Request: fold
Amino acid sequence: MTRVVIIGAGIVGANLADELTLRGWTDVTVLDQGPLPLTGGSTSHAPGLVFQTNPSKAMTEFAGYTVRKLLDLGCFHQVGGMEVASTAARWADLKRKHGWATSWGVEAHLIDPDECVRRWPMLDQDQIFGALYVPTDGLAVASRAVSELITRATSRGAQFVGSTRVTGIEQAHGHVTGVETADGVIPADIVVSCAGFWGREIGEMVGMTVPLLPLAHQYAKTGQLAELAGADPATPALPILRHQDQDLYFRQHGDRLGIGSYAHRPMPVDKFAEPGEVTASAMPSMLPFTEDDFAPSWEESKLLLPALGQTKAEEGFNGIFSFTPDGGSLVGESSDVRGFWIAEAIWVTHSAGIAKAVAESIVDGRAETDLHELDVHRFEDVQLAPEYVRETAQQNFVEIYDVLHPLQPRLSPRDLRVSPFHARQRELGAVFLEAGGWERPHWFESNAHLLKDLPHDFLPPARDAWASQFHSPIVAAEAWHTRNRVALYDMTPLKRVEVSGPGSLEFLQGLTTNQLAKSVGSVTYTLMLDDAGGVRSDITVARLEPELFQVGINGNIDVAYLRSRAPEGVRVADTTGGTCCVGVWGPLARDLVQPLSAEDLSHTGLKYFRGRRARIAGVPVTILRLSYVGELGWEIYTSADNGQRLWDALWRAGQPLGVIAAGRGAFNSLRLEKGYRLWGTDMTTEHDPYEAGVGFAVRPAKGDFVGRDAIDGRSEDTAARRLRCLTVNDGRTVVLGKEPVFVDGVAAGYVTSAAYGYTIGRPIAYGWLPGSVEIGATVEIEYFGRRVPATVAAEPLVDPGMERIRR
Ligand code: FAD
Reply:
């Protein structure tokens, strides 16, 4: 039987032991440095508010599971959750949030100030516009849940050992073999660190960087309130309450209120107290209350809840828990030390759901809910630097309740990674947004003058204030130019690896769905599936030499996956940073590039989905005939040192043709017009290729590959749900993604990617819908509380016959 050691008996570790033993893995030992069951970690003092609604579908599902599980355990007070708005911006945002709840299947209501006060009589009605009310939210009794889970897991065979500190992890041949404690080594095949904010130290034991930062967060309790006189602490009745405009939340403790505040300065904690005796008011995760930091929050609390004027904040503490660069949890197996897993930076809210997903990943090799947003490998190297983690995690603390636009970039740190074209892009007035540390142009101010000549039918309608943010009408001109002339797109940040060495072909064949055993020069769009047939990535494989493949992938998670699977002799090298790529696309692309090269770049000379090494203006390049925007052209790669010269040569040669530089705004619009999916947004491991509309990339006849058996017998016809292309009927409401879609008045799906389609003169939204919804059907998208009719359209919307690309 596989021997599992879990480090940490907080809410995460205890849930994981429960989930593993539930699945029949009973050789589970849980170690904690603190006494049991109150270990002194963050869980031991957690006030336990569970607000389920989250922009992330996965996190909402994890919260929903936690609620159901803790209810079953008798450790949840389902008092409901209320998030009030005291500003118009927040009220609008709560409407958007109502959309997320509906998209992810959580019952939610927008309630007016009268109803707010009916549910929370102490609220000052004049302070609020209304609230988002979720009846199934409530209070987790986290420490009791830990006790219950310990009892249940122990009854199935698990062992919990308190006051035992893990001091090292033993490994041999790249695999964990045991866990070291003062009492000796405990042998293990799998070790899972559920050490909460101590996670970095455990990661260091195997050389793994865990990008989290422990921060203190203030929690206080008021004195007795006459309004709550006689209330039983064991049965809270008031809904949990969030006042996000002031970074505050509230819960009832009998006849008192608890107040949590994120309004104070970020307080990173670098040194932790030794675990020792733990009491309700003294534990390593608690620091002394700093009253000055709380003072402004107290004043704001009294404004919202005037009854607090009769009392004061009687007691409080600064409690420690984990923050990460993007605010997400950290889950996954080390790619260097097999069998070493982490499950950290997890709130009580998501604890049971994530523990279930981790148990599924360990036992079955995959989780029912896609985990890429939590995957510890999602960070780029530059994002693992301690300075980066420290700065961005503190930003996340500060912004935790802010209204954030989905495109809103961080302001700092910036300029971490720039492509070799960056200097030229700046000269052209590029407006950069950041992703994965890369500066990516979204449009170029130098193209503004093109707007005046834009044909009338290409002119987009005015956007509302929300959809106008991080957007410019210049994007329309860039899209027009790509469809009618030629544009340069910086594709450098798209991740790529070289897979090389004897056995490379067999290795890639075994992981992918499409036929890669083709001649040198072939380029193939293919999928990587998981064992259950879910799409774990879509990749483009260029065979440059018999045993050398350039593979365009979706991010670091793919690098970790490929590396962890690569057999002896096969090398997976991340070449992204040392190379660059410019997409030259548009009907005049050949007029631009051909004169610069001795190679035959005619339609037959370098066919669609073929590539070769070449020289362009003397620069050694790899040129792939591909187009993510649906126009004639190539992706041209070269080493970073040659990048600027390549750009300059293309730019100069393009002047007579009116070449422009174009950004991601145009790119996103054009790709949606062409129906090209974006992995992670449009499809994940939760979808099979046929549902996602990429079944054309599956060739079961090629031989065995991961996921082949699972999808055997499936087809477009068996798909119970489909990723569909919608166009918005009013021609002007540009939705942004994650909005719910209603079929016959019932919420039945949600939007994934969206953009305005300049060529077709309508907004486009891709979305998941039941398979029974046919092309031509009218559906409705909820956008800030409004239902906007949309039509299910045949795809692609532009150039279904591929005449624009194949010429
Ligand atoms: P912990 O409970 O900290 O457990 C980790 C365990 O690992 C500890 O018991 C520790 O002793 C053990 N450990 C560490 N190192 C070692 C070692 N070397 N050897 C052996 N054992 C080790 N979340 C919500 O969802 N809702 C809320 O309302 C909420 N409010 C909060 C309020 C405050 C003031 C704070 C500080 C946090 C709050 N949180 C809330 C967050 C939540 O409490 C934590 O995210 C959660 O409890 C973390 O659980 P865990 O099991 O990962 O960590």
